[in-house]
User: Fold these one by one.
Assistant:
Number 1:
Amino acid sequence: MSLLTHVLACLFGMGSWVAINGMWVELPLIVPELPEGWFLPSYLTVLIQMANIGPLFITLMHRFRPGTLDERPIIYCIVVLGIIATFLLAFFWKHTVTVGGLLHSLPLLVFSFLLSVVDCTSSVTFLPFMMRLRPEYLTTYYAGEGLSGLVPALVALIQGVGVVHCQNATLSDSLNKTVENSTMATLQAIYQPAKFSAQVFFLFLSAMMVLCLVAFMLLNHHPAIARERKNDLYFSGDLAKGNREQGLSLHAQTPEQKPMISPSDKSEPRSSFGRGTYSKLEVVYIFIVLAWVNALTNAVLPSVQSYSCLPYGNQAYHLATTMAAVANPVACFIAMFIPIRSFILMGFLTMLGTGFGAYIMAMAALSPCPLLVHSVSGTIIIVLAWILFVLSLSYVKVIIGIILRDEGHSALVWCGAVVQLGSMVGALSMFPLVSVYGLFKSGDACNTKCPT
């Protein structure tokens, strides 16, 4: 194993979702200056789902024209598009255009859609590209993908996004005319100015995309990495296009790669999926778990994170978001050293993570007065719930990725497609509940009173 390849695979993975993750963490700073206000997150949710046209096209090409689509040119295109879009976003995010008599942040919405296309398409191109490297680098890639959420969050914390201080204020009591100069003490939420502008933050995101591009170029062309390639057949011109998929899936396996549940090499394939290691029922189980886990981690729970954490205070909210982002790469490192490919463990961790998610959802539903809202124990429990939720389900995602990697190139394409499908279903399910029907209520950061 090469340290250089691990670093490059991590940087490559960081570019997968860094742009959209960065957009989300910057919302508290840019929303007050835009005409959409806090409806902007709803618009972003719709734009991200519309951007799934990219993964849909790639998946259909692999389904009906297998072996004809090389993901490398596509990766170059989408990463360059991400660099350009984030760079232009830094200078035009404030600009507004009148549409239908109303002001809209059209440049920001257009660039957000382009970045959504970039990040959504990365799910069905970056993962299949990792077939060209040794299996151990896939876990490092997943760690980088986890860092794509952590790094922007840490930069936003340094920037001071969303930091609120409660300041004493007085409100004139106009209701009581009999008491002259009667005043009623209250607290006012004051948002602190950021240490650097949103423009600088978006330029940082553009620099992260540049790093991703450089890492991808080196993964393709660095001589030391070329010597490590697991499957030379893929790069030779001797294979016909129709046989490339077969060449990819017939690579020799190291002991690390062999599944815990596998038939002997001489036995008949158990299904037509990949190398035939798993039966149709097992394949369906894997993909259902994958879709469910990604729906929860990428859409359902993030949409209510502020409702579940902010009642316990801004410190609890920032701690939960940061530590949950840390838990993702930690789970990847655990999977790197302890890759347990057990269906039973996969199901147990999925149920465990779902249980933590259910607690988080319940606290969000009870907002602005969830359980133990005035106690330190309530804060500790909600932060731990977020950490364990992300930790357990991130481990499941990595293990499924490792399993499907062994089944060949097309299996990783379908892995990315199911990831996007699960995320889309989760987002579309939560959008009306949060943004249309308003089932979740947020309280005033300084003045919400709850029964003790």
Number 2:
Amino acid sequence: MRKMLKICCSLLLLLLLSGLLSANPGVKVRMTQKGLEYAREVGLEILKQNVEKEHFPDLTGHEKFGLGNVKYNISRIHVTAVELPSASISLPGSGIKLVIGNASLTIGMNWNIRTWIKDSGRGTVHISKVFVTAILSTHLDNAGPTAIALTSCRTTPGDVDIKLNGKTGFLHNFFIKYLKKPIHRNLVTNSCPNIRAGIQLIDGYLRSLNAVMQIDDLAEVDYSLSGLPAVFQQFIDLDLKGVVFPAGNHTDSPYMAASFTIPDQSESMLYLAFSEHFFQSSSFAYYTAGAFNMTIAEQTCSYFNINTEIFSSIIPEVAKYSIAPYPVMLKLMSTEMPTISLQQDSFMVEIQGSVEVLAILPDSTTQSLFTLNIAANTSISLNIFDQKLMGSLCLNRIQLSLDHSNVGSFEVLLLENFLSYILQTEVIPSANAKLSKGFPLPNLANVTSTRPHITIVQGYVLISTDAHYKHYRRRETTC
């Protein structure tokens, strides 16, 4: 009979999983009551699909019957119907509360008994008016991950109705009477321990999840919890570290995350807030990896050949230095970590860099002509595709100053239009190709965002979204 309890426990475990969705954090996640209600609906549907396919091992036992024992064997046990008219999740402030009310299920089976006579046949067990109330809490253990515990559990077994078909009908009522007793006993004594064991399995599963996700070859993001989930009456908040590191090198960012608060909204199931610190840490990671450095040469320029003749037409001093036209190479470098600024409806990136212009001589050596300092003001537009946050960079304006020159002094403003064109046609497309790969969003398996909406406010980017769970049906179910 212990195996039958697996059916009653499955709903609780599935719904508890849905309730766990959720220094200062770099990313905040909020699950609203609307999200919890959707998770409840999904949990009920998954439960019905899975439970109705469950098959259990044969059960054997004996019960005292008058002056002797009745030995029984129950085989080919399977669920034929599940009814869950009332199931709810609430957030009382001290945890996640699940209440299953008036649940019932019908089980079909083959049976045989042996006493002074033998009998066998088909049977049906109908368990009704089952009530389960459970409260789940979370806490951080010494190892860092969040531990899950069942702090309160109460089960009311309800009614058990058994119908048997066989030859010796006069024994059925006696057998049913004694068969009800072990069913009741197992429901009362094993329901909550089985639920607790299931939660421990969930706890182990969540601990095994890798919160560090690869972005690309250069960087990875840490979405592990930075503190306990905060449970309120209308929502659950989770604080995630939300820090981007150079791949394989979890060096702390030199910037500290500022505190921020998600606005009180409930129209969507989920809210994900990415702080300015999250994007600043990504800037640090890619700056450390040298991702903002780029070389443009005659072979790689898409639209025209870069040579000293072009520069001579803009800066006469170059013509005096280089009589014969030589190919030119541009070495662009970010001299400081790009600075991110999030304001209302504005995602700005300030880039401080330099561009060194070098002539490539006939012997393949290079000669530096001059170096310019560049201050570029850019903006990023955001979108979501394939569960990733993607960006598109736009150049707003640049400012130039002369850092060093081997061709003498010249007016750097003469190069502004030319370099702006180079940036627009070569550098920006290259940056957008990288940005199009996107940042993976924190997510659960088989859960995708639907109708996401992005809002940029001061200090963070807010994504409001509903969720869709795709349930993959199992081909076979074994116990």
Number 3:
Amino acid sequence: MGNDTQMKLVSGTAGYVLEDVPHLTDYLPDLPSYPNPLQDNPAYSVVKQYFVNVDDTVTQKIVVHKDSPRGLHFRRAGPRQRVHFESDEVHACIVTCGGLCPGLNTVIREIVCGLYHMYGVRKILGIDGGYRGFYAKNTVTLTPKVVNDIHKRGGTILGTSRGGHDTSKIVDSIQDRGINQVYIIGGDGTQRGAAVIFEEIRRRGLKVAVAGIPKTIDNDIPVIDKSFGFDTAVEEAQRAINAAHVEAESIENGIGLVKLMGRYSGFIAMYATLASRDVDCCLIPESPFYLEGSGGLYEFIEKQLKENGHMVIVIAEGAGQDLLSECLQSMDQQDASGNKLLQDVGLWISHRIKEHFAKKKMLTNLKYIDPTYMIRAIPSIASDNVYCTLLAHSAVHGAMAGYTGFTVGPVNGRHAYIPFNCIIEQQNKVVITDRMWARLLSSTNQPSFLNARDIAEAKKEKQPATGLLDGENCKDKVND
């Protein structure tokens, strides 16, 4: 899928740059506007300043020097005084794509309830089964009554799938059904597809707002502070780590090994390790490790077993893939979303650890736990439920105000409208030369597995502390 979205940059004084999102009036200049119906909503009558000023923006960098330029900004999310849709003309649809993640049903619920209660919208459809549902499946009528209790359930009531993106068929379906607001919930691949849908809608000159809600349990979407479902995943991972610790502690030379999600980014493994304090070693995709020799994983395991009699290892699913490819036949297969199919590093490293210590005639008892699908399928915890509500409401406010071709998320604690290109160009990853990873190494006392050359290379790749302030493009945040 190509993406030819043009960046919409607005420059100001002192190095101020606004990376703005598209608006329906960019290609429909005569589009009328209307007073926001929220001004007559009794629930918001007590709010001192409910409407967001048209010039409000959110800065991407908040740590600056006294002489730093003002830097890159995004348009602040929230309700505007004027909207570009009348309540009775809105025909909205919601679609969920990609893998499961805690909080999907909460986002669906709050989009429906936000449209219904805040803006008086009555026509809302759920697209069944991901992108292909636009042209291959039935739709579901959504009302507050239908979605009332769905936040208490895991998964998505709309169903999901990978792939199935046919831009022409999808936009044809949107046009044929008279849909004029599209809410797309999914990860970077899904948002990439949403950007292409927006471009086709703009090419056809349709009055259709396209809003993305970023979803990835791995927390690998850049720019935004974090993705929904991440807190729930870290919390639920504690149960697996606790079980591994109990198993390891209860037997001679016990090793508890837990594999967590993290295809390319090790945030879940890192935060779950820091939260647990029972983990002795955390292995993530961003930090290469090796097994044999001085300073290797085998040596560290042996040291821990001799000193403590047990140990717990947490490994992200994408860690050690280079080691696997050396030992096993390389697999270049992809899933329907275009993600590389990873080999099971948990099973592989379990066998390697057992074989190594069996050769050394050293007794070990290893228990391997993979809670991946248990974590993906649970309902979201309270903090994620609140976060999902804010995401959903911000998306609704943006679409009603006529913004389109955007995704929504918090940037330094303030919700903003972010152009699709900013979140699909690269992934958010753990920076192993930052303090958070140093905190983990200090907590576990594990070796860094890096030699002097690796450390020098990692420091070269890291962005400087004010690297985002030139406003040239959207880069990953530093994990402070």
